[in-house]
Amino acid sequence: MSREKKQKQGKREKQESHRTRWFWVFVGPFLLGLVVFTYVPLGWSVYLSFFDAHNTVTPTEFVGLGNYTALLRDDAFTSSLWTFCLFTLFIVPTTYAASLALALMVNRLRRAQAFFRSVFFLPAACSYVVAALIWKMSLFNGVRFGLANTLLGYVDADQIAWLSTTDPPWYWLVIVTVRLWLQAGFYMILFLAGLQRISPTLYEAAAVDGARPGWQVFRHITFPQLRTTSVAVVLLLVINAFQAFDEFYNLLSDARGYPPYARPPLVYLYYLALGQGQNLGLGSAGAVLLALIVAVVTIGQARWFGLGRKEADA
Amino acid sequence: MSSRTGNSGLRDDGLVRAGRALRLALLVALALLFLVPFYLLVRNGLATEQEITSPDWTFFPTDLQWGNVTELFEDSSVPFARSLLNSALIAVATTLGTLVLASLAGYGLARIPYRHANKVFYAILGTLMVPAAVTFVPSFVLVSSLGWVSTLRGLIVPTLFSAFACFVFRQYFLGFPGELEDAARVDGLGYWRTYWRVVVPNSRPVFAAVGTIVFIGAWNSFLWPLVIGQDQNSWTVQVALSSFTTAQVVRLHELFVAAAVSILPLLLVFLLFQRWIVAGVERSGID
């Protein structure tokens, strides 16, 4: 190798190590934090889940899969998983349809589009805690002064103890409407962005082909064009539904604790790990199970949608 | 023939107009429905306890009880002012910290060539799949072993590393015009100074968008502050509100006025930055 070439190579290597150093200056602090506060807890959680750890962060006795089998045999935990599944199966399609419908309506407005967009998006500024408070203490209060019961009173209907009856389970209506109110506007924004990306020439072409505006255009143009947005929205909805904690906790628990019904897994784990028993081993096992379920659902969904895309391309 | 199409065109016009009116009516009705909870919040916050619980429900309270606000701040059983201050400190610190850390990382990933940059990126992206709430047990264990329970540190530091924010910044910087940076290089600036003097000043909208989204998230977050804020002095506004709703004796007028006060800062941020929030959500690049 000639001297010149060697010099060139040396220069290139120096440049590369210079770049590498700066890459780590920029990315390093963030990545380190992520490792400490996400990867380490995750690993620790897996480790703790194999131990008996009451009231302590240092595991005492190795129990193998004992925590897992105990949890899966625990009716309270399995029923909370079931609760979550029901909740997800209901809230995901409902929010999806509601936010898509809002976006379609708002998108076709000629005037006041910004106004309606703001109004529907405004609940995103409310926390689940505040929303739960309004729902529990004013809208769906079990006594006469709640707005819903006042309205029922006008039509001489029976009053409903919204949050404290399990038969029929009126509390579902309360829980579902809180989440719809809080989330629909946010997803509407995503759909609006998607709608604005659709090329107008597609609609012109459809009109030339004689597609009637309305259902036909929606089915053959709008909906397929929203595919990527739809995939993202459904994924986010599922992950968010899985994390349901705030509104359940604030709507249903009171000074006496949490009623045994309508308990999502996170609420159950919260009481298990940080309640009186402080059973961190069992709590960690639950967290790992939950994470596994989320991963399976998310990956499964991505795969499923991915396969669909291939078919559409073919 | 032509007259027939003309007729049907007229009829269609009428139909279209009717359809538009119907849609507008539906939208107005829905908008009112969406505003009802806000109205209830204000109405109950400015009513007397009797008026909130009265079976003879009225649309407007007979006279507005502005005294509820002072009563809330004078009530010593709940440290509401303190919790507001905590929330403000946490939200501001989290926002600033996240913006610095995530934007640097996003820039590095997008603009500094490094052989394993993609692997690093996927390691960061992967944490988006881990629902944050699922790691709360081990995170609590970690923070408590650091002795950070009930401290602002414990409430802020673990939330600073948002993979979502990093992702948005990376996507944004990937599309950043290279000419500006090239000009800076010619002037002899290194990565560090190019970033601070050229890239950041030219990227204000994305900072505003991510900043407001992070701020809203930090202000509204509940589970983590609930887990970590174990004594009253470290409560955030959300935890304080929640303690109101789960308490045995509830002073409703105070509760509602507290909730109304708690969303004021966000409504302000919201009104000021709405355009950017919308742009940020759109850009969050969920696709």
From TrEMBL, chain A:
BP terms from Gene Ontology: transmembrane transport
Gene3D superfamilies in the record: MetI-like (1.10.3720.10)
All residue ranges annotated as the ABC transmembrane type-1 domain in the record: 85-301
Record flagged with keyword Aminoacyl-tRNA synthetase: no
Pfam family, one: BPD_transp_1
Principal localisation: membrane
Topology of this chain in the membrane: Multi-pass membrane protein
Compartments in which it is found: Cell membrane
InterPro entries found in the cross-reference section: ABC_transporter_permease, MetI-like, MetI-like_sf
Keyword Transmembrane helix found: yes
Transmembrane segments: 21-42, 81-102, 114-135, 170-193, 226-245, 280-300
Keywords recorded for this protein, A-Z: Cell membrane, Membrane, Transmembrane, Transmembrane helix, Transport
GO terms for cellular component: plasma membrane
PANTHER family: ABC TRANSPORTER PERMEASE PROTEIN, INNER MEMBRANE ABC TRANSPORTER PERMEASE PROTEIN YCJO
Family in the record: Belongs to the binding-protein-dependent transport system permease family.
Protein name: Sugar ABC transporter permease
Source species: Streptomyces xanthii
TrEMBL record, chain B:
Superkingdom of origin: Bacteria
Location in the cell: Cell membrane
Chief location bin: membrane
Entry-linked Pfam families: BPD_transp_1
Domain ABC transmembrane type-1: 84-273
Swiss-Prot/TrEMBL keywords: Cell membrane, Membrane, Transmembrane, Transmembrane helix, Transport
Membrane topology label: Multi-pass membrane protein
Gene3D superfamilies: MetI-like (1.10.3720.10)
Residues forming coiled coils: none
CDD domains assigned to the protein according to its UniProt record, in alphabetical order: TM_PBP2
Gene Ontology cellular-component terms listed: plasma membrane
One GO term of the biological process aspect: transmembrane transport
Regions crossing the membrane: 21-42, 88-109, 121-143, 155-173, 206-227, 255-273
Family under the similarity heading: Belongs to the binding-protein-dependent transport system permease family.
Name of this chain's protein: Carbohydrate ABC transporter permease
